Prior knowledge:
148 residues, mainly beta, Lipocalin, 1 helix, 10 strands, globular
Amino acid sequence: MTRTLTDFQGRWRMSRRIEDANAGSTGRFEGVAVFTPTPNGLIYDEAGELRLPSGPARQTGQAGLHATRRYLWQQDDDYDQGGVLVQFADGRDFHRINLGQDTSTAFHDCPPDQYEVSYTFTRWPDWRATWRVYGPKKNYMMFTDYIR
């Protein structure tokens, strides 16, 4: 199946599991992602509640932390048919993926850390992004499931 940017427009429920190998713990994020059309592509906004296994919220019984993230998704046919350039909110390049493939992998080098992401679309319209992050002080995996 060939997916395009317009297939992502709208609201998605999302659930994220964060497995931190250094801390030996697992965090959770529950929220929504909204893809909003712009003249140049889509704005990706996510918002939800982050619960980590340690920290002030756990010690006091408070609710988790409110967390947000924003990216820009733009068509990038120079990369490949179905190609998308994902940028940070400030316009810096983050990584490129191919929506036409069932699985698309990308890398982002941010010295001293490295980020590897794999997007899996085999259960479309549900999909998953799996991140592997490593560096001198980082060693974690994030699994994010998106459901319409």
